[in-house]
Amino acid sequence: MNRVRITKINGKDFQIYLLPAGEGIKRATQLAKAFAPTLAALVESSSQGVIDYSSVAYSIAEGLEEIDVLEVCSALLRDLSVSGQAVKLDDYFMGNYGEFVEVMTFALKENFESFFEAKGFVEKFLPKRELEESEAE
After folding, report:
1. 88/97 Cα distance (integer angstroms)
2. pLDDT in tens, 27-38
3. Which of 38, 45, 117, 123 could potentially form a cystine with 51 if both were Cys, beta carbons 3.0 to 4.6 Å apart?
4. 21: phi then psi, degrees, rounded to nearest 5
5. Which residues, in sequence order, are bridge partners of residue 12?
6. What is the C-alpha to C-alpha distance for residues 132 and 128, in angstroms, rounded to an integer?
7. To which H or E segment does residue 39 belong?
8. Under DSSP, is residue 96 helix (H, G, I), strand (E, B) or coil?
9. Which residues of 57-92 are buried (b: 16+ CB within 10 A; e: fewer)?
């Protein structure tokens, strides 16, 4: 299996390596547990026809407290190269956070898309109480 993924952002080729399965499962589970409230807020808002972005933003902020964001970013971009040159995360993205967000979005999608789209994902990671409350409404 090809562990390398490449995307073009702002005219530059960004190359990442997928996480090994064990580390990927660990990280995906951490992310799922941290952001289950965000998913619940999105599901609840979308079922009402209007997304309450303030509620979603609050849930994201709470979720960020549950994980070491820098550690996750460093793991996902551990072997990052830009246009064929290896780069250091801290140096390359200094003052360039917009591009960082685009690269992280790509890395998250490539590593975890199948995990988060799996059947039963919401039921597994959404706290049972919140799931029951949303079903009761």
Report:
1. 14
2. 988 888 887 777
3. 45
4. -55, -50
5. 9
6. 6
7. helix 21-47
8. coil
9. eebeeebeeeeeeeebbebbbeebbbeeeeeebeeb
